[in-house]
């Protein structure tokens, strides 16, 4: 059911536009499958973000927010169909998700077909806001270039040689390509790239190929691992003693469960999207406090991202004064809003959220069963030149 909302002078009121009696948001994400832990965090964060941004009312200008959940099962065809169902049958005005880059790439044309906005969170591949992008796509999650540039700052340098290990799909290949490009400005070189299936659990052959490629190289050597989900390549390769070839393992940030493997590597450096003790702002303070009280654990890597997406939805609708797509597009291009990471900004050219990243060094701390990513330096929006690729 739709009704006309008359123009209002009050700042933030929903103005001239045909909207439903309720605001319908679809969360299309991989509730089941190998990345379900990421998905659960993302959904928790989304709901907390909507709650925080609406002051607990779950309303925007008196209209109830309804969140419709769709499970992609981490399958591109199902993700595509689920988003079409959300827009076509459920009449969602805006959608958020998914977890997997491969699924996200399949969903992008659906947003264009229905002319509705899809906020990508947390899928990472550069191509989502690059060669496969369309004007209806926004991303609150970081992209591969943001991961790559921040990690290049942390790990690169003259005389440094790097090998990479990544999963053989969009997330891994885009991540390595962006990392290789980012390293060029640091003086470091990439000697070897290794790609393995996403469900790999035995890394012996891959590790041997990496060791053989690196063993005779002089100077500082690092193996940079880009990985999502299970398999635990870092611990398994570390057990093969890469140090006998002078190779140090390095990686970016991850969820708390994965940080247990970091405990084996004190002093390891990299860059992370989020760790709950790093950002210092009121939004993150609220998130940490509420998450601890409700769930007994601190908020995790993808909880912060989901919250950023939820807050972006509320800010966009308020700023637009409407849920009509063209109004939202005008409001969201260049929009700045607060998140648990501080201020994010949707870049006009590709709708990628510009945001801080964090150079960390792993420490062992009493009472924590994982390696703690301690802040070395915050890399702000101004510190990173993120390429536009569309």
TrEMBL record:
Residue ranges of coiled coil: none
Start and end residues of each Leucine-binding protein domain: 22-363
Membrane-spanning intervals of the chain: none
Superkingdom in the source lineage: Bacteria
Annotated keywords: Amino-acid transport, Signal, Transport
Keyword Protein biosynthesis in annotation: no
Gene3D superfamilies on file: 3.40.50.2300
One of the protein's GO biological processes: amino acid transport
Residues of the signal peptide: 1-21
PANTHER family in the cross-refs: LEUCINE-SPECIFIC-BINDING PROTEIN (PTHR30483), PERIPLASMIC BINDING PROTEIN OF ABC TRANSPORTER FOR NATURAL AMINO ACIDS (PTHR30483:SF6)
Family in the record: Belongs to the leucine-binding protein family.
Name of the protein in its database record: Amino acid/amide ABC transporter substrate-binding protein, HAAT family
Organism per entry: Sedimentitalea nanhaiensis
């Amino acid at each position: 059911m739709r009704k006309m909302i008359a123009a209002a002078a009050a700042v933030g009121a929903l103005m001239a536009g045909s909207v439903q009696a309720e605001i319908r948001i679809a969360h299309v994400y991989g509730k089941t499958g190998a990345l379900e832990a990421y998905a659960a965090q993302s959904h928790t964060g989304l709901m907390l973000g909507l709650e925080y941004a609406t002051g607990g009312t779950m309303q925007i200008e008196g209209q109830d927010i309804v969140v419709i959940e769709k499970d992609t099962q981490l399958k591109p065809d199902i993700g595509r169909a689920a988003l079409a169902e959300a827009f076509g049958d459920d009449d969602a005005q805006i959608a958020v998700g998914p977890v997997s880059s491969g699924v996200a790439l399949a969903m992008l044309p659906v947003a264009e077909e229905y002319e509705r906005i899809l906020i990508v969170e947390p899928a990472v591949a550069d191509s989502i806001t690059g060669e496969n992008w369309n004007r209806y796509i926004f991303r609150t999650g970081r992209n591969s270039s943001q991961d790559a540039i921040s990690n290049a700052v942390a790990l690169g340098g003259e005389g440094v040689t790097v090998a990479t290990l990544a999963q053989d799909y969009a997330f891994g290949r885009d991540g390595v390509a962006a990392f290789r490009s980012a390293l060029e400005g640091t003086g470091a070189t990439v000697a070897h790239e290794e790609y393995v299936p996403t469900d790999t659990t035995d890394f012996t052959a891959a590790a041997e190929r990496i060791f053989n490629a690196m063993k005779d190289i002089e100077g500082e050597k690092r193996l940079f691992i880009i990985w999502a989900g299970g398999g635990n390549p870092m611990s398994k390769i570390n057990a093969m003693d890469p140090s006998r070839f002078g190779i140090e393992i390095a990686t970016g940030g991850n969820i708390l469960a994965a940080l247990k493997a970091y405990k084996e590597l004190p002093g390891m450096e990299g860059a992370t999207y989020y760790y709950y003790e790093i950002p210092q702002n009121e939004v993150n303070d609220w998130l940490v406090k509420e998450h601890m009280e409700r769930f007994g654990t601190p908020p995790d890597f993808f909880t912060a991202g989901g919250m950023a997406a939820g807050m972006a939805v509320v800010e966009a609708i308020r700023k637009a004064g409407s849920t009509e797509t063209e109004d939202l597009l005008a409001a969201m291009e260049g929009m700045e809003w607060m998140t648990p990471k501080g201020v994010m900004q949707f870049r006009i050219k590709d709708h990628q959220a510009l945001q801080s990243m964090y150079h960390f060094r792993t420490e062992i701390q009493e009472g924590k069963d994982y390696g703690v990513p301690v802040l070395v330096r915050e890399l702000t929006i101004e510190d990173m030149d993120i390429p536009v690729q569309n």
